[in-house]
Target: CKLF-like MARVEL transmembrane domain-containing protein 6
Amino acid sequence: MENRAVYSPTTEEDPGLTRGARTGLASHFSLGWLPLHQRVLKGLQLLLSLLAFICEEVVSQCTLCGGLYFFEFVSCSAFLLSLLFLIVYCTSVYASVDAIKVKSSEFYIKLGTGCVFLLASIIFIFTHDRTSVEITAIVFGFIASFMFLFDFGAMFYEK
Model:
């Protein structure tokens, strides 16, 4: 019995020039939904909340751990929410959802995240053990919270 009748070729033929440079995941990625200043703000929010979370994770021991745990939760949540909105705006997901709902959600999430991050940073000031890592985390937390609140305020001046 000849194997050609049972098995078909398993390799894909050379597609030629039909495929462009942007294939796979790259074809779904676009920076066109966000203006440059919004990309910078969202990138800073993402970076600063990640740095605050990393600095907080390096803390090896604490006396009053409640503030540390609250700061940990808030900084991680802020990082994940920033990442979520960056993914929505920079992929084809934005084209498939209602833009007004995305803007409305972002409005409330920016305000809530900025206020809660500010509160967590203030609480962490009063409960930290005065190590350099904790102070660095608090500084990143304050800067990140102000970035969220600045981005929230900037929504009122958009065209």
